[in-house]
Write the structure tokens for this entry.
Amino acid sequence: MASIEVRKETCVGCGVCVPACPFGAISMEDDLAVISDDCTLCGACESSCSFGAIIIRTGETDGTSISDYSGVMVIAEQRDGIVDHCTLELLGEAKRLAEVDGSVVSAVLLTEEGGEWPEKLIQYSADIVYIAEDPALRHFRTEPFSRTVEKLINKRSRL
Amino acid sequence: MRIVVAVKQVPDTAEVRIDEERGTLIREGIPSILNPFDSYALEEALKWRDELGGTVIVVSMGPPQAEAVLREAVSMGADEAVLLSDRAFAGADTWATSHTLATAVEKMGNIDIVLTGKQAIDGDTAQTGPSIAASLDWPQITFVGNVRELSEKHIIAERYVEDGSEVIKSSLPVVVTILKDANIPRLPSLKGKMRARKIEIPVWGKDDLELPEGEVGLDGSPTRVVNIATPEIFTDGQIHHGEPEELAKLMADSLLGTEDS
């Protein structure tokens, strides 16, 4: 189980962590930060402490490792077959993120008919465009959309 | 009809003031309230229960003091309440929170519909409702401003989107997130308040839900909050009064950086 600890020998009693806590869970007792049960392990105090005196420990986690995945995927939002402007902005942001580790930017377009949009998405800096065309994808509905994207991600864990 | 309403206890942000000197929020003495958006979900549940019969169960995951919002919900008319509270739940992100809530819904059994507010006013993610649906593998209808029809077989609801509304029909069971347009929440009744004082609220922990440590709390959370900051307040704005021509010149000079010319 995850836990939080104040290292007594490192804590200088400066009290910076007290207002940093969004839950009012830290108080000072004898020049030492004390964390009450109201703590939700959010980590705000850990980053506020200049002395590294507050440590949050996490337990063993099972499940998939995030390092099995790479790349940045942008889900193209379309309405009546027209890709929304925010998607083009997201591609710019995705490119910036992908440049950090030289990974690939992909766009996913779920629509009834892609038309010229895949090419446009490439122009707006997508390296790969995945297109799913089906009359069922004409209007946004949570399940067809999320299941299609989920399948795509699982099929290609390295996108 | 068995309806679950998932609610959250949040700080009353209307009461939060800013410590001007330190630029931080003053949190001392801030009362905790039922997330306002959740009260619309609760009202919607009560409204349909009153019409169709059945049970409204409110559930919340939080520290022991979150019990207060469950009692408030009972005072408004909820039939049952369950608190999900365990040290092991601390530090949960939206994934772990919705997974825990979904497991509780499964444990309750035979639930037809789960309602939530569209989002909490303290976290603003709007992820927990949709993620409960994903965790349960149920269909979902988000941002519902009007529930047109509800029966044992299906629901017809209007989603309010940017440029109008979408009418969605879904089979049950289903998860629905409710907007404030849907209704006006009722006030607690005296009878309800008395019931709320007496009702026993079971507390379920991770063992009651048979959840392993790696699926709850911080350990079960793929995301981390790495920093929380208060937005900076800028106070160097200027106000000018005068004739339009004069002001236009001032503005142009300021934009062009030719103020002294």
About this structure: The first strand of chain B starts at residue 2 and ends at 6. Helices of chain B lie at 36-52, 67-76, 94-108, 128-136, 190-198, 244-256. Chain B touches chain A at residues 19, 22, 24-25, 27-28, 63, 87-88, 90-92, 130, 133-134, 139-140, 142, 163, 166, 168, 212-214, 217-220, 222, 224-228 (CB under 8 Å). Residues 241 and 247 of chain B are 8 Å apart (CA to CA).
